[in-house]
Design a protein that fits this description.
disordered N terminus, alpha+beta, single chain, 16 helices, four-stranded antiparallel sheet, Cytochrome-c3 Hydrogenase, chain B, globular, about 500 residues, about 20% strand
């Protein structure tokens, strides 16, 4: 993990600036800066998103039917999430207020495949090295290769769990990455009986491995409860989609928000009215926005999304094995919401088990092989699509003109919702583990562990400019800065 140490003047005093750049084992590019005062006391900690990609702008002017394919290029890890959120938003544009049974179930199957593969990738490949070896362990060992050497069964199951999820995506979307299966108004292909049987042959093994993954996380919590219950903990509101009868639903539902104590703030809000609930703030030191609940304001209204929010925001999980694990997770909180970032891993594995069970149930449904795949109706000029991506609530909002061209695009992605919680978590970790200590790679890795717990997708979160200034430097071969240009926000 590279980091740089330099001096920086701030508030007429000399501070040392430490930069963790780039962040490792996360999707996308970002960095953390810390300002240290005398005796290495932490003065400031910030997570900076340093990419600028501008998706909300260059989508404008494109035909609406291109959008579900285009927006996937935000990311190679969670493209299905953007693919489906865009397709859902544009269902309203083509007047498809209700999809056919086959189309909805095929989309759901695609989405569960995405949840399964993404959760497996994050836990086994990116986070398990820290959890299994320790945050201060040898950096050369803290990777999936090290896990494979020390825990071969764990690594093998992680790789094959992800592979199965990718196969579900391939068969429903046409490709493992950046497929084309969902279109405005439905889908463009069904599954054959042979394809369903191919997946059914493996699904019970996948469910078994998912159960083992939940048990692994529970053992880690039991072995060091003080760490897992307190590391980087910051109390906040939570937000997620809620399905029929209050169940956890990744694909459809209404919005529900709770406060840090678990009391419901908003419930039953139709997704097309998300702008009444959520406002966004911009800050000059990051390209990523800072969403908040409008009624509470930016200081009190920030919130968490993702597995930790979903598992605690719902009333139940609609599959038996995952619901039993959810109840045990809730009991662990002893009547209070769990806010510890490391608990994200436990909730994430419960969701992976849920996705595996849902895939199993759908594969027995003959609607997956149906022939009625699209529908439509009266055209509209606006659509909002909201789903629960692996990392949390994902909002796509489009306006389309009479020429079928997109005029407005607004995206609020999962990692953006978690922006303030991540900043709060790393501040608490820095104050506890870095204050007054000599810096080392292992000490600084504690910061990255807190960020990884949220499973951020920094590429997805950098779609809009905000107010961070753009800076370009011209350097000679020796690295001397010859010219520096900076935009005024």
């Amino acid at each position: 993990m590279p980091f740089a140490l330099e001096t920086a003047a701030a508030d007429s005093s000399t501070l040392r600036r430490v930069a963790i750049d780039p962040l490792s084992r996360v999707e996308g590019h970002g960095k953390v800066t810390l300002l240290l005062g005398e005796d290495d006391q932490v003065q400031q900690v910030r997570l900076h998103i340093v990419e600028f990609r501008g998706f909300e702008k260059f989508i404008q002017g494109r035909p609406y039917w291109e959008v579900p394919v285009m927006v996937q290029r935000l990311c190679g890890i969670c493209p299905v999430s953007h693919h489906l959120a865009a397709a859902k938003a544009l269902d309203h544009v083509v007047g498809a207020d209700r999809l056919t049974a086959s189309a909805e179930k095929l989309r759901r199957l695609m989405h569960y495949g995405q949840i399964l593969q993404s959760h497996a990738l994050h836990f086994f490949h990116l986070s398990s090295p820290d959890l299994l070896f320790g945050f201060d362990s040898e950096p050369g060992r803290r990777n999936i290769v090290g896990v494979a050497a020390a825990y071969p069964d764990v690594a093998r199951q992680g790789v094959l769990l992800r592979k199965f999820g990718q196969e579900v995506i391939r068969l429903t979307a046409g490709k493992r990455v950046h497929g084309t299966g969902a279109i405005p108004g439905g889908v463009n292909r069904a599954l054959t009986r042979d394809e369903r049987d191919e997946l059914l042959a493996e699904i019970y093994t996948i469910i078994g491995w998912s159960r083992q993954a939940v048990q692994l996380v529970k053992r880690l919590h039991a072995a060091n409860p003080e760490l897992y219950d307190s590391f980087g903990t910051c109390r906040s509101n939570i937000l997620s989609l809620i399905g029929v009868d209050g169940t956890l639903d990744f694909y459809d539902g209404h919005l529900r928000a709770r406060d840090a104590d678990g009391s419901i703030i908003v419930d039953g809000l139709a997704v097309e009215n998300y702008h009444q609930l959520i406002h966004e703030e911009v800050k000059p030191w990051s390209y990523m926005k800072f969403p908040f609940l409008a009624a509470l304001g930016p200081q009190q209204g920030w919130y968490k999304v993702g597995p930790l929010a979903r598992v605690q925001n719902c009333n139940s999980i609609p599959t038996p094995l995952a619901e039993a694990e959810r109840r045990e997770f809730i009991d662990h909180g002893q009547g209070k919401l769990i806010h510890a970032p490391l608990a994200y891993h436990w909730a994430r594995m419960i969701e992976m088990l849920l996705a595996a069970e849902m895939i199993k149930d759908l594969l027995h449904d003959d609607d997956l092989s149906g022939t009625e795949l699209t529908t439509g109706g009266t055209r509209h000029h606006e659509g909002v699509g909201v789903i629960e991506a692996p990392r949390g609530t994902l909002i796509h909002h489009y306006r389309v003109d009479d020429d079928d061209l997109v005029t407005t695009c607004n995206l609020i992605v999962s990692t953006t919702h978690n922006n303030q919680p991540m900043n709060e978590a790393i501040r608490r970790v820095a104050l506890r583990y870095l204050n007054g200590r000599q810096l080392s790679e292992g000490v600084l890795n504690h910061i990255e562990v807190a960020i990884r717990a949220f499973d951020p997708c920094l590429s997805c979160a950098t779609h809009a400019l905000g107010k961070m200034p753009l800076q370009v430097e011209l350097q000679d071969a020796a690295g001397q800065v010859l010219q520096r240009l900076r935009t005024v926000p």
